[in-house]
Specification:
Blueprint: E1 2-4, H1 7-20, H2 25-42, E2 49-54, H3 58-72, E3 76-81, H4 89-97, E4 101-103, H5 109-119, E5 122-126, H6 138-149, E6 153-157, E7 179-183, H7 195-199, E8 201-205, E9 217-219, H8 222-228, E10 243-247, H9 254-264, E11 271-275, H10 279-285, E12 290-292, E13 304-307, H11 315-323, E14 328-331, H12 333-337, H13 340-345, E15 350-353, H14 356-363, H15 367-372, H16 374-385, E16 388-391, E17 397-399, E18 406-408, H17 421-434, H18 439-458, H19 465-480
Parallel strand pairs: 2-3, 2-5, 3-4, 5-6, 6-7, 7-8, 9-18, 10-11, 10-13, 11-12, 13-14, 14-15, 15-16
Antiparallel strand pairs: 1-9, 16-17, 17-18
Bound molecules: ligand NPW, adenosine-5'-diphosphate and potassium ion.
């Protein structure tokens, strides 16, 4: 499991470790890791031109100590000091001692900075790290703009300056990094858009922090998914493996039913039962589907329901499914039609799978505000509905209603932004629910396989949702290794 911890947790762990180590040892570990990453990026350190953007805190200190290490290896290093009188004293002395230069504020500072950054091979962003709040202040923002416009590689120290470490929100100008070297643990912002996009690739430097068991955010890895995937045993039959019911599609959107069934058939359930007006389309594509023209309540037993994809305005199917005492996944139109009090009152697990637009409608806010604050949005929805919520999009998050650790899916690809791929996910996750996974596991394992399937199917070229469904089996095999 990959984990991310909040600033508060990092600070506590940092204090405990600092108390046991000689003064400055932790910063030296950070700086050594940072300098090694910079050297890797540069290839040849000797003779390279390095510019450090240095703020007033320890983040700037890290940059200065790393700069000193690079200067000792023959790089030409210049530090641009945003707050000269509050610059980390030890770091500054180390850089000067190693032959590095400094440029301080005042007239001509920005002009000089622009020139230096324009000629640099590497820019190290030590403006602000976990001590930052809000978007960058004006001079810092101007330097970030110069860095973005230069041909230099930009390496961020701990975090790209200007992003919110705990939430992934970006409240104003921020540094766009090619690489972020982060210390001790990932911070939630490094895994959640929009901040994630500012981080570039992320390299974690172990500085020996002793972190608590419970993280703020976790991302499944192959082994975690493999441990959760259902597998038939000698005693299995199609019913014991779980039957998933799909109440989806409409005369207008029969394809949604077909795609949800296509996902469900690849999700581990022993049988897929379809209820709705698209039975002919479903059967002609997937003859193994059990179809019924009765409503969900009379269609026969299932171990989990999926309701909503392409359902149009059929509120009665949604209401019937929510009455069932089995796990239920509600997607797409079903989200609009589901009564909140009914969802809250359910005793069996409920998994809601909105995209940002649907989440926005449920929360009564704009789509942009959901996309700008995904973590807060998914938590708020889970709390309001008393349900597990999977918020889809460029970053997919899964939150349980009682608070606690939120899962982030690491496998997504933008190729999944294609009509109907959400229907495949709902069938797939519903099938995992029917196989006995918890709502949180079904959502996160489903999203993991779906993302991987999207990557395999696309392989660099556009895909249709049906291609994604077909590639789920490759994803499953890959995970099982
Ligand atoms: N934790 C660990 O284990 C380890 C941590 N280490 C390192 O320490 C870093 C944390 O250092 P930190 O606490 O000194 O805070 P930091 O991020 O430098 O920022 C504070 C300064 O920034 C300023 N500032 C604030 N907002 C701003 C804005 N929007 N735009 C511009 N400026 C802004 C603010 O100014 P002020 O508000 O005081 O005027 C304040 O002076 C951490 O990220 C890591 O790199 C490693 O060395 C060792 C292991
Ligand atoms: N930019 C993106 N990066 C990664 N995944 C994305 C992106 N945009 C959409 N997706 C994924 O594609 C799927 C789209 O689902 P959804 O929005 O419900 O579409 P539809 O209703 O057409 O099926 C979701 O799994 C979502 O997480
Ligand atoms: K930084």
């Amino acid at each position: 499991m990959r984990t991310a911890y909040s600033v508060e947790t990092v600070r506590t762990a940092e204090r405990e470790l600092m108390a046991r180590l000689p003064e400055g040892a932790l910063m030296q570990r950070a700086a050594a890791g940072l300098a090694a990453a910079c050297a890797d990026v540069l290839g040849r350190v000797y003779g390279s031109r390095v510019v450090l953007l240095v703020g007033s805190g320890d983040n700037g200190g890290d940059a200065l100590y790393a700069g000193a290490r690079l200067a000792r290896r023959g790089a030409g290093v210049t530090a641009l000091l945003l707050a000269p009188e509050r610059t980390h004293a030890g770091g500054l002395a180390a850089l000067r001692g190693a032959g590095g230069n400094t440029v301080t504020g005042g007239d001509g500072f920005l002009g000089t900075a622009q020139e230096l950054i324009g000629r640099a091979d590497l820019v190290v962003d030590g403006i602000v790290g976990i001590g930052g709040k809000g978007g960058l202040r004006p001079d810092a923002a101007t330097l970030a703009g110069f860095a973005a416009g230069s041909r230099a590689v930009v390496v961020a120290v701990d975090l790209p300056s200007g992003v919110e470490a705990d939430t992934g929100e970006v409240l104003g100008p921020a540094v766009h990094a090619d690489l972020t070297v982060t210390f001790g643990t990932h911070k939630p912002g490094l895994l959640i858009d929009p901040a994630r996009e500012y981080a570039g690739s992320v390299r974690l430097v172990d500085i020996g922090l002793d972190l608590p068991e419970r993280a703020e955010l976790e991302a499944l890895q192959h082994a975690d998914v493999a441990a959760r995937l259902p597998a038939p045993g000698a005693e299995s039959d199609k019913y014991r493996r779980g039957v998933v019911g799909i109440a989806a599609g409409s005369a207008r959107y029969p394809g949604a039913a077909v795609l949800a069934v296509s996902g469900a058939l690849r999700g581990g359930a022993g049988a897929v039962r379809y209820v709705g007006p698209a039975a002919d389309a479903v059967i002609s594509r997937f003859p193994e589907t059990l179809v019924s023209d009765l409503g969900p309540a009379r269609a026969g037993r299932v171990q989990a329901w999926v309701v909503g994809p392409g359902a149009g305005d059929d509120a009665s199917a949604v209401a019937e499914v929510l009455e069932a005492e089995v796990p239920v996944l509600v997607d797409a139109d079903g989200l609009r039609l589901a009564d909140r009090a009914t969802v809250r009152g359910r005793t069996a697990p409920t998994l809601l799978t909105p995209h940002a637009g649907e989440a926005a409608a449920l929360l009564g806010v704009s789509r942009e505000s959901v996309e700008g604050a995904r973590l807060a949005s998914v938590r708020e929805l889970a709390a309001r509905y008393g349900a597990t919520v999977l918020l889809k999009g460029s970053t997919t998050l899964i939150a349980d209603p009682g608070g606690g650790v939120v899962r982030v899916n690491p496998t997504g690809t933008a190729w999944l932004a294609t009509a109907g791929s959400g229907d495949v996910l709902s069938g797939l996750a519903g099938s995992l629910l029917a196989s006995g996974l918890s709502a949180s596991d079904a959502g996160s394992v489903g999203a993991y396989l779906h993302g991987l399937a999207g990557r395999f199917a696309a392989d660099g070229a556009p895909v249709g949702a049906h291609d994604v469904a077909e590639a789920v089996r490759d994803a499953w095999r890959d995970v099982m290794g």
